[in-house]
């Protein structure tokens, strides 16, 4: 079993930055894929970014060039550096961990990010 705990959300002005963190506990291996999804009111949850154990990254089109995902395998933690934030980035951001070649998929409780002046 895996537990995910996010931190770092909040209110920021347009053009500002936030850094999200997600710590995984339980049985965690470095080859697990960790990532971030977001869900705005009335919309489906969508991929923001994910990162494989070897460091390979994948970004949603709307955040390319603005957000950076990274991970620290020694601490089972994934980070999302969000720069040049826009009002349309406002959403609940969920940490995700999935085990390749299996159906095991875990979610954090979500952290609110609000971009507003």
Annotation keywords:
mainly beta; 4-stranded antiparallel β-sheet
Describe what you observe in this structure:
By secondary structure, the protein is mostly beta strands. The chain contains no helices and eleven strands. Strands 2, 4, 5, 6, 9, 10 and 11 form a seven-stranded mixed β-sheet that branches. The chain is globular, with a radius of gyration of 13 Å. The relative contact order is 0.32. The model has no long low-confidence stretch (mean pLDDT 95).
Fraction in helix: under 10%
Q: What is the 3D shape?
A: globular
User: Major β-sheet, in short?
Assistant: 7 strands, mixed
Number of strands: 11
Q: Residue-averaged pLDDT, rounded?
A: 95
- C-alpha end-to-end distance: 40 Å
Oligomer: single chain
Low-confidence stretches: none
Radius of gyration: 13 Å
SSE pattern, N- to C-terminal = EEEEEEEEEEE
Q: Beta-strand level of the residues, as a percent range?
A: over 45%
Main structural class: mainly beta
At a glance:
The chain has strands at 2-7, 10-12, 18-26, 33-39, 46-51, 57-59, 67-72, 77-82, 91-98, 105-107, 111-115. The chain has 117 residues and is mainly β.
Furnish the topology, listing elements before pairings:
Blueprint: E1 2-7, E2 10-12, E3 18-26, E4 33-39, E5 46-51, E6 57-59, E7 67-72, E8 77-82, E9 91-98, E10 105-107, E11 111-115
Parallel strand pairs: 2-11
Antiparallel strand pairs: 1-3, 3-8, 4-5, 4-9, 5-6, 7-8, 9-10, 9-11
């Amino acid at each position: 079993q895996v537990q995910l705990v996010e931190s770092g959300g909040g209110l920021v002005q347009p053009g500002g930055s936030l850094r999200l963190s997600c710590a995984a506990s339980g049985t965690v291996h470095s080859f697990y894929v960790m990532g971030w999804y977001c869900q705005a009111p009335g919309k489906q949850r969508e991929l923001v970014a994910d990162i494989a154990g070897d460091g390979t990254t994948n970004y949603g089109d709307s955040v390319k060039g603005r957000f950076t995902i990274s991970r620290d395998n020694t601490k089972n933690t994934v980070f999302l550096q969000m720069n040049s934030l826009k009002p349309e980035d406002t959403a609940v951001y969920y940490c995700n961990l999935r085990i390749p070649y299996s159906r095991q998929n875990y979610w954090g409780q979500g952290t609110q990010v609000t971009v507003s002046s």
